[in-house]
Amino acid sequence: MAALxxxxxxxxxxxxxxxxxxxxxxxxxxIYDVSESRLWKNGKHYEHWAGQDLSDxxxxxxxxxxxxxxxxxxxxxxx
Length: 79
Fold this sequence. Notes:
The chain is mainly beta. It has one helix spanning 9-13, and strands spanning 6-7, 24-27, 30-33, 44-45, 48-49, 72-77. It contains 1 helix and 6 strands.
């Protein structure tokens, strides 16, 4: 399996559903493509915005981290 590409926070921020067609979110160092999710249309899911690291926001969500299992990991968030 090929190594995943690394992206910085600025690159992730461009995939917010507004600036580029991709809609990405990061969680625990992985970047997920949520473009196909009807819940992330226009880059917003309830009070959460795409193009960001959502690791600190998950404890307030009504679901667990298993929600990310349905999305493809497309990269690694580098610090």
